[in-house]
Amino acid sequence: MIWLYGHNNIFAKMSNRKKMQTESESLELIVILALVAVFILFQLRRTLGRKSGYDPSDDQKDDSYQHKSGQRDEEDEDNIIQLRPDDEKAVPGANLGLSKSSPFYGAIEKINRYDHSFNVRSFFDGAEYAYGLVLNAFWNMDRKTLRSMLSRQVFDQFDGVIKSLEKQNLHSENKLMDIEKIDLVDVNLTGSLAEVTVEFTSHMIMSTRDEDDKIIDGNADRSIRISDIWTFCRDVKSVDPNWTLVATRTG
């Protein structure tokens, strides 16, 4: 019995040790997994937090932004031109994105009173995306996308060009290479109807081919510098975040 009791004691101590060891290993595993989770989350935040286009960390205080990256990759999402950040806690008048000496500061400030999240930097970011989306829809003769983003008058102008190409059995072969910069040209607020006009300076490869795929206009191997002036309009009292392209002209 003493022998059995002694061994039982040994077995009990060994069991306790194993139990403590198991608990210790489990605790270490939990700590390791937690550290791994924190590391993964940190990497995701770093990756998902990056944007193409202008770098807001430059904190430029003027009416234009220089763009170093190429055209933003198109995402499979609705054709909505949201030229404002998703920030429900935006503070009125904070970070408008341009100097108080700018001739457009007063109008931007008035728009911000209606829509506290509105600022120039976020607008430029959305405008850059809209520019590429509209151009690609136009070049691909995608009337559905164009109709959802343009005013009736602008759509009719774009559609007229598309019909002319179709009638002559021509097709465009164009590519937006990059957006060099975006400049603020004009800002107006009439009642709650805001109109913001910007100038895009970009580089494109543009050519037109006939039904035999022969180039009849442009150059498929060389990019050219293009200046487009576009006006976007939105009722800033509306909960609808969509901006509509209401006017276009060359710079």
In short:
This protein is α+β, with helices and mostly antiparallel strands.
Structural descriptors:
251 residues, alpha+beta, Nuclear Transport Factor 2, Chain: A, 2 domains, 5 helices
Write the layout of secondary structure elements.
Layout: H1 2-48, E1 64-66, H2 105-114, H3 120-139, H4 143-149, H5 152-167, E2 171-172, E3 175-190, E4 193-209, E5 215-235, E6 244-250
Antiparallel strand pairs: 1-3, 2-4, 3-4, 4-5, 5-6
Describe the structure.
The protein is an alpha+beta fold and 251 residues long. The protein folds into two domains: 1-50; 57-250, Nuclear Transport Factor 2, Chain: A, CATH 3.10.450.240. Helices cover 40% and strands 26% of the residues. The chain has five helices and six strands, in the order H-E-H-H-H-H-E-E-E-E-E. Strands 1, 2, 3, 4, 5 and 6 form a six-stranded antiparallel sheet that branches. Mean pLDDT is 77; it is low at 1-14, 31-61 and 68-80.
Helix and strand content put the structural class at: alpha+beta
Please estimate the helix content: 25-40%
Any idea what the shape is?
elongated
The number of E-state strands comes to: 6
Query: Count of DSSP helices?
Result: 5
CATH architecture of the largest domain: Roll
Q: What's the CATH first level of the largest domain?
A: Alpha Beta
Intertermini distance: 103 Å
- Describe the biggest sheet? 6 strands, antiparallel
Show unreliable segments.
1-14, 31-61, 68-80
Query: What count of structural domains?
Result: 2
Percent strand equals 25-35%
Mean pLDDT: 77
Enter the CATH topology name of the largest domain.
Answer: Nuclear Transport Factor 2, Chain: A
Q: Could you give the order of the helices and strands?
A: HEHHHHEEEEE
